[in-house]
Structure formats: C-alpha cells, structure tokens
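In the previous lecture we treated proteins in isolation. Real proteins rarely work alone, and many bind small molecules. This record shows how such a complex is specified: first the sequence, then the SMILES for zinc ion.
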Amino acid sequence: MIDTKKRIVVLLGPPGAGKGTQAAYIKEKFHIPHISTGEILRDNIDKGTPLGIEAHKFMHKGDLVPDDLIIEMVKDRVRQPDCAEGALFDGFPRNEEQSEMFFDMEYVSTNAKVCAILIDIPDEEVINRLSNRRYCPSCKSIYNLIYKVPKNKDGDSYLCDNCGSELVIRDDDKVETIKNRLKVFHDTAEPLIAYFTKKNVLHIVDGITSLEEVFKQIVNILE
Ligand SMILES: [Zn+2]
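The predicted 3D structure, ligand included, written as tokens:
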C-alpha cells in the first residue's frame, strides 16, 4: 500500500532544544521543506507581492502582522511543488487564532498526517546548556563547556581552537536573557500545547538526550 498522506509537522521547543538541527534532519529524511513565517514574510516583502506590501505597512508602524495576512502567505507557500509531501512549520501557528485557521486550511485538513512535536527540556537544562556556550568574536566559532570544550585556556579565559582569540559569552546566552527567552517560550507555547492536545495531534519527545536520540523519537512518530 502506498501511503499518500502528506506529513505536516509543527515543531515546538524551548531555545537550546536543537529545533534547527531536528528541522534539518526531518527535511532530509521526509523530503518536506522547513517553513518559517519570518522567511515567508521576508520573501513576500522582497518580491513586492500584494500580501508583502500589506504586511510591510504593519511592520513599518512596528505592529504585528495580522493573523489573516500570515495565513494567506502560508496558503501561498504550501501551493509550491516542494510542499507536495508535506511541510514542517516552525514559529507557526503562534497563537490559538492562527491554530484555528491552520486546521481550517484545506492543505492541513485533507489527506494529511498532522503532528505537533514538542521537544521537552526542563528550564534548568536549557539554562545549563545555553549558559555554557562560548563564542569566538573573531572567527565566530561556537563552543560549549559541556559538549564542545575548547582545548586551551589563558588564566580563567577559554581560547578559540581555531584562531586563539579569547572566547566570550554572547548577550543571548547570559542567564538573565535565557530566563526571559524561556518566559516568552512558555507564554507562547502553553496555549498551543493545550490546543494541539485538544486536537489529539500533540507528541512529546524527551529532549534531554543526544540529537540523534531525539531524532529517532521523531522518526517513530512520523513513520
Ligand atoms: Zn576563533
């Protein structure tokens, strides 16, 4: 039997959960494009489409682009041939209104296997992972004092393996910033998790393990 169903994946997870890496793995294995609303927005604005021109008016005033405009752009995007076998969404839907519009889309409601996948990692682990990141301001290499430890130190400072520069902590990886990012994540994700649970499409994978192990759990869900 040939499975003709499209795979429609919504990926959720806190910062530091490795969503970008999992998205790349999913894209490669299941031949579905990774669609982010930021990208679609930029693309519509760059090409000067009517939707892009409309969206730009809101962004220009510093306002959020309304949900119905976002949905129209998503509908346009999934008409492209690369979405024939499905699509992976990241950052969309971002609220209950968008979720309702999402499930009303013909692309989603017709012959599709819809999976919202939450990569679950406790806050302390997110803080632990991200606050141990170190960054080379010269060659942009990224290290982690747990997973990818730089070989050399000068006093208390770690040095870049590549170019010997002193490594720094980026603002994004400071504990206070991480806590703020986690708050934003929880505020956004919790209503979505409740909605996807109600729709019976939520899957939770254990994120406190290697990228490969996380991907195995995702493959089990999608196959
Ligand atoms: Zn360097």
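Summary for your notes: The chain is about 45% helix and 20% strand. Residues 136, 138-139, 141, 160, 162-163, 165 surround zinc ion (CB under 6 Å).
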